[in-house]
Task: structure prediction
Amino acid sequence: MSEDEKGSASYHPPWERRGTDLSRILSLSDGIFGFAMTLLVLSIALPVIYTVPGDPGADHPTLFAVLSQLQGALAAYVLVFVVLASYWRSHNLLFTYLRGWDQAVIQLNMLFLALVVLQPFLVHVITTYPGNFEAVVVYSAISGLTGLALCALWSHATSHRRLLHRRIDDEGIRWLRTALYLSPAVFGAAIAIAFVNPSLAEFAWLGVFVIQIAHVHRARTRRPGSDPVDARPAGERPVPRTDP
Result:
């Protein structure tokens, strides 16, 4: 087949809004994740110290005493940063198995990114109103919706395997689908807990990391030495991985 024939076979009219080049989608996504993660640090503000000029006898707090007041803000920063890192990893893993995109992929990815950029605002909310019922519900709801947007993207891509490489089998599809739903499930549980104890609901957010680790460990235990989402049909040649 000539080069012109190959080009014609892969041609899609512009109104179909389809393609196989995922580089610009991934570049935009990585840039937004990096920007959102960087903005998280703005939620950490040094407390204002009021001193009396010219009064050597005044009891001025030490730097360590001032920094100790930032424990809540630092904890929220670490928590939300790791949540974003978890979503970035899931996003990166998902796109590893896509061979192209269509209009729905663009729309669902944009929805996902629109929710991602709200995270710096959300960390400011939970540090300003620690243990507050409304703050816990708002953070949990938006973070859960972020995960559901990624679930919707994967469900669309796996429908009839329309956008998937053959290198992932049905078991791998199910494993990744379950992994994507775990975070929204934890945030949904946190909302339920908040009706009883908002402070306890904040600790429930840590379940995102615990349950994800357990999910990966269970898959590796069942299939020692294999990547739970890197299964291929028998006889198919491996495709080089693009993720680290």
User: Anything to note?
Assistant: Residues 125 and 135 are 6 Å apart (CA to CA).
